[in-house]
Write a structure and sequence with these properties.
The protein is about 35% helix and about 15% strand. The protein is α/β, with parallel strands linked by helices. It is globular, with a radius of gyration of 22 Å. The protein starts with about 25 loop residues before the first helix and ends with a helix. It binds adenosine monophosphate (AMP). Adenosine monophosphate binds next to helix 3.
Length: about 500
């Protein structure tokens, strides 16, 4: 994407990449990519990494985190070359999902195009043999999901004893219940003395504590408030009955002529079903989730990026890191169970200073989740209301359907967690899944926050779009009151 992404940020001191201590070859690659200035996270992190510091960096999603760690790594590796003929893995980048690994791998290739650095991406769901072959040939920078990396290590196809720099991207996710065991196993294969870099858009308090135990006197890089959503994303909420969500979504896509929409559901089944229904409505769609083969996942994403399909319906597999150039619309068809995931989901739009819109369709069952999200964001999300789609005030909140066909009645995991303490069982089960290939990222079981939606002051006017209301519809407050009476099964 062409440069200038930090230019809009207030208090951003204009500086150029030349001043950061990067080699001419790296600068050339950046200029070929069209980058003009380092983004704030790049400005802060690159010098620290070059000094050999451990860092814990929280930066809003889409603000150039990948280059913030990749560029100084490439610089360090090339300025301290290995003896001729030796090519052990010197930098290891771990990510929670295959798609993110592939994307980071592409960036590494682009940034190192004028260097003699060899990089490789390894993840599950595809044949392991070509990965083994390439590793045998020598790799400097390895990007991996933890499960496949451990498989390779078990088969003695990769030697991690010479790793100098470890990156945990989406670190909060990597240190969460689904991955922490694999991460600890990987750590045992790495030298104790190495540089550790942790990057994430969000860091919960307890993950911060855990991260600190793995870092050596880390420098903190915090370019925007933790858990903040990018300013250029215009967010709004439409309260609507669950059974009318699909109709409303089809209407909004058709009526507004949205050409590229990333839609999030909570479950894999829900993603499939919605994609089918949208296709029936004449809106070309595909689903992407952990039950799809890696081939189908890659194809769906490529089709979506190239405009072959209009809607990609995803579980949280696509919530983190995916960079879809100028993606204009994200829709939360169902709110995420964990409030932080909202920030990750909507961060798929509004990247690199492009503007984007994030619409959430919220039914009465989800008012508790909406409240958790607004508390995390520290602001109310503006409401819009399309005539005819007001929620029916007689409908009562019901427990949310879980991904395994059961029903859950516990509180939402994040809100049930003791601050700074151990994670609750609810949290761990909500995050359970197959961590071996990175697909543990899916949170298919939905705990329910059945606490009442609180009465709140009407939200601020959402802006200039037609249909935007100046506050929460009366039915929302009514629904909250109703929930207080009958729906609160806490
Ligand atoms: P990331 O947060 O690493 O996923 O990056 C988000 C997007 O910003 C990607 O499309 C990058 O190619 C782009 N990007 C990263 N750094 C810069 C920069 N300094 N100038 C312009 N675009 C950038």
């Amino acid at each position: 994407m062409a440069g200038g992404i930090g230019a809009d940020l207030e208090f951003f001191i204009i500086m150029s990449f030349d001043t950061l201590g990067l080699s001419a070859e790296i600068l050339r690659a950046l200029s070929e990519k069209g980058y003009e200035q380092p983004t704030p996270v790049q400005q802060q992190a690159i010098p620290l990494v070059l000094q050999g510091r451990d860092i814990m960096a929280s930066a809003q999603t889409g603000t150039g985190k990948t280059a913030a760690f990749t560029l100084p790594i490439l610089q360090l590796l090339t300025q301290n070359p290995m003896a001729k003929g030796r090519r052990p893995v010197r930098a290891l980048i771990l990510t929670p999902t295959r798609e993110l690994a592939a994307q980071i791998g592409e960036n590494v290739v682009e940034y190192s195009v004028h260097l003699s650095v060899r990089s490789l991406v390894v993840f599950g769901g595809v044949s392991i043999n070509p990965q083994m072959l390439k590793l045998r040939g020598g790799v400097d920078v390895l990007v991996a999901t933890p499960g496949r990396l451990l498989d390779l290590a078990q088969q003695r196809a990769v030697d991690l004893s010479q790793v100098e720099i470890l990156v945990l991207d989406e670190a909060d996710r990597m240190l969460d219940m689904g991955f922490i065991h694999d991460i600890r196993r990987v750590m045992k294969l790495l030298p104790t003395s190495k540089q550790n870099l942790m990057f994430s858009a969000t860091f919960s308090d307890d993950i911060k504590v855990l991260a600190n135990t793995l870092l050596n006197k880390p420098a903190l890089v915090e370019v925007a408030g933790r858990n903040a959503a990018a300013d250029q994303i215009e967010q709004c909420v439409h309260l609507v009955d669950k059974k009318r969500k699909r109709e409303l979504l089809s209407y909004m896509i058709g009526h507004n002529d949205w050409r590229q929409v990333l839609v999030f559901t909570r479950t894999k089944h829900g993603a499939n079903h919605l994609a089918e229904l949208l296709n029936k409505d004449g809106i070309t769609s595909a689903a992407i989730h952990g039950n799809k083969s890696q081939g189908a996942r890659t194809r769906a994403l490529a089709d979506f990026k190239q405009g072959g399909i209009r809607v990609l319906v995803a579980t949280d597999i696509a919530a983190r890191g995916l960079d879809i150039d100028l993606l204009p619309h994200v829709v939360n068809y169902e709110l995420p169970q964990v409030a932080e995931d909202y920030v990750h989901r909507i961060g798929r739009t509004g990247r690199a200073a492009a503007t984007g819109e994030a619409l959430s369709l919220v039914c009465v069952d989800e008012y508790g989740m909406l409240r958790d999200i607004e508390r995390l964001l520290k602001k109310a999300i503006p409401r819009i209301a399309l005539p005819g789609y007001d929620p029916d005030p007689t409908i009562k909140a019901e427990p949310l359907q879980t991904g395994r066909g059961g029903r859950s009645s516990g509180p939402s995991p994040r809100s049930s967690q003791p601050r700074g303490g151990a994670r609750s069982g609810a949290s761990s089960s909500a995050r359970s899944g197959d961590s071996r290939d990175g697909s543990s990222h899916f949170r298919e079981s939905a705990g329910r926050d059945s606490r009442p939606a609180q009465r709140r002051r009407p939200a601020a006017n959402g802006g200039s779009q037609p249909g935007r209301s100046s506050g929460a519809p009366a039915s929302y407050a009514g629904a909250g009151a109703r929930d207080n009476r009958g729906g609160n099964k806490k």
